[in-house]
Amino acid sequence: MRPVLAIAQRELRSYFGSPMGWVVMAAFMAFAGYFFWAAIALAGIGEMRMWFSNTTIILIILLPALTMRLIAEERQRGTIEVLMTSPVTDWQAIAGKYLGALAFYAVMLLLTIQFPITLTRLGTPDRGPFFSGYLGMLLFGGTFIAIGLFVSTTTKSQVVAYVGTMFILLFLWLLSWAGMGDAWWQKLLQYISIPTHLDEYAKGMIDTRDLFFYISFIGGMLFLSVRALAAWKWR
Amino acid sequence: MVEVKDLTKYYGEYAAIEGVSFKVEEGEILGFLGPNAAGKTTTMRIVAGFKTPTSGTATVAGTDVVRDSVEARRKLGYLPEQVPLYDDMSVREYLAFCANVRGVPKGKIGERVDAVMDATRVTEYADALILKLSKGFRQRVGIAQALVHDPPLLILDEPTVGLDPRQIVEVRELIRGLRGSHTVILSTHILPEVQVVCDRVVIINGGRIAAIDTPEALTARLQRTHEIRVEVRGPRKEVADALRKIAGARSVADEEVGEGVHRFTVDADPDKDLREAAAALIVQRGWGLREMASVAMSLEDVYIQLTTAEPGASHGAGVADGVGAIHESPLRGREGEDV
Description:
Chain A is an all-alpha fold. Chain A has helices at residues 2-17, 19-43, 49-67, 72-77, 79-84, 90-110, 114-122, 128-153, 158-178, 184-192, 194-203, 208-232. Helices cover 82% and strands 0% of the residues of chain A.
């Protein structure tokens, strides 16, 4: 466990030490703030449900910028050679990287709790959906980060990692459109599509099926990342 | 300490190394000498657990580097060729991270970091960002990193490349200071490094081992001729003929070095030293003997002989004395590209 925490800690530190970390955080806060205040000012909507679903689109653009460097940068600069000749298993390396990026994302989310707090000051909203919505956002972003980490493991170019990840995320997002309907394949597409599951959380429902979906998706992606990392040894 | 058996690594169709076997005894400093793209980096990466061999085995202190990779990696410190470090950390932070990841007990991390910073003399830059360090200091931090968890085995890939002469001397001193307490494998394509630092040398070329021995033994073993050089004032042809007639002389070459002065190079059987006979002869004939030297074959000559394909162009041709970083292989440059 110690190598995992050491790697995660270094990763988190490195986000705060790099321009990219700050740019992503600033952009996220700007858009998140706009979505929140615009909804109140223009439409008079005093709830978070719309905000959760709007913000996810920003994450499609921003989270790949966080994950692209995870392994690709180490590969590009050669630092992976020092890391992987340390007594660290592939799982520990991947888990550390994942947790580091997830922690940074969690900090980003944490900064937005000013919005629900504002709402409770303005009125007396139901607080349940706030908590479930944030849990949903964490799982949702966690899935994106796992996908980004996997893509970053397969290349030594950060640009390729960014574009590849964004493409996959957009694709998974679009699946939810194609899945509107009641045919079995549409339901399947709905299930695979990542944002679908978020909506239930935003409504205030924590469905174990959705929880299972996110957790297993993340687990699957981390597994693929470990395999991809191990595969480099054979090249 | 290290046992490598029949190691082979293919990158696609291309064999980076083939059938490489050698042993390193505890406390020994082993030099890995070869031209670029000879397979040095590939071999070291396999022993360090970064790459998996296509076939063959390697063990570190009895632990197989493939089957029990993490355990084997616990026993070694590795400095890759390009000295990759996290530029956004300070020296102290970086070394503490390395110690932490490699399982140095929490309470001892500070102590270990201070100790290796002291040993590699980077203490004054402890809190500087690695990004700002010069090449020489990066190299030292790289070595410090390999030492921080106090592993019995150190693998250093070209530890002095890109350093200025003073830094090179310092790094060599540092490595020599590890003899006995640590086992060291270091690779280089610089000959004097091997002669100065190493107990034994593995010469590798084209992915295969060309020779393994001590620097001195290698030189002696491959010494096929004994050569003397004399500078004489006198008639060129007569002197050459006279020298050629000395018992044991095989061939004589000459060149003009001044007005009426020629330098003759006399090749002789390895067990013959012609110096006294030649001196007596020259004096007896009344020529002017200006200079005389016995030329032993240097490790450099041996190296070139072993790593050059053309048979004729081997012995001693065009070799400068002393320093020599030579022989870029024109063949394949693929090694080291793929991380």
